[in-house]
Amino acid sequence: MKKTLALALALAMVLGLTACGGGGGTSQPAAGSNPGASANQPSSTPSTVANKDKPLVWFNRQPSNSSTGELDMDAMSFNKDTYYVGFDANQGAELQGQMILDYITANIDTIDRNGDGVIGYVLAIGDIGHNDSIARTRGVRKALDTAVEEGGAIKSDAVGTNADGKATAVKDGKLTIGGKEYTVRELASQEMKNSAGATWDAATAGNTIGTWVSTFGDQIDVVASNNDGMGMAMFNAWSKENNVPTFGYDANSDAVAAIAEGYGGTISQHADVQAYLTLRVLRNALDGVDIDTGIGTADDAGNVLSDDVYKYVDSERSYYALNVAVTADNYTDFLDATVPYAPVSNQLSQDTHPTKSVWLNIYNAADNFLSATYQPLLQNYDDILNLNVEYIGGDGQTEANITNRLGNPSQYDAFAINMVKTDNSASYTALLNQ
Asked: Hey, what domains does the chain have and what are their CATH numbers?
């Protein structure tokens, strides 16, 4: 059974690094205090490996320039055992856009609620500087023919409100369905950031849909969201009652279940595969075996992934899970998002894979996908892979809220990091370089 960190140790870690964490006056919760997390006792024997040489996995937020999307290869090559684990954002974005287009096509006789010949949609944007959010915004606009290109790339800016169709970040699209041409208009889009600075904020989305409805009323025919947390907030606040299809991303269990109640659909980014890869890459590096072990090549317990659920891009040192559209046709297969992926759920032997200690953070303990889907999966896999993981939940606002709780990296054998902002890898690597 996993042990809970003693309060004294947690407080010592917080106080010991307050000066070097760069944080403001925000009080820091104890390590592992986020709801549902398990705080595990790190190894009692400090590792003899230098912290800068320990295995490191970035996950969910790929180190990159938030303005240009360019990968931060310094972070990606921090040491020989550094990798990224995420999902194929562009493939998933295209799936989401196509899913929305397919729904409109299949329901063209009823989709235009006020019969004005304009299919109006609103779009909840998660984080305008996040590559995944950018890709999803572009995917919707490309599929619905509202995309505007600049410099060879589709614009992903939020438009605010666009009642007259004259916004410069989008254009009015044209769809021909059943021999009839329809106009498609992005009526409004906004980054869902709360007053404290946290992005992908579901509460903000739930409030914003009310503002959009007061402006546009029955001009809103479709609601699209960069993720399910925001999508479900808008669905529950308005679109469910008004029978307006709402589309999200992540295949969170509540969103999948809501498809039976009219939620239009979502995208599974194979969180079960991502969570496995996050810890498996660390396990392999700690064992000193080929990085492909238990991934593309079966391990000694029979764990292996097929190439239709993930891909590896060597030049980016990145593993990407592949996405699946979840709609009314197949949603019953995705109702429990926290079940480990069967082909990689075989227990490793303690004899050949002795327990190692991992420090892992979730950028925002309130994020629905990460806290309710990703972390429970990690907690299933850490047992399977014999990893003693300490889970740290951040506030979604500052890196210091997280780094202030990495008080003694020498206690851990490896690290898994989920940044608040994709630009901020140095906040973590600086601690490991000390």
From this structure: 7-86+271-317+334-432 (no CATH), 108-244 (3.40.50.2300)
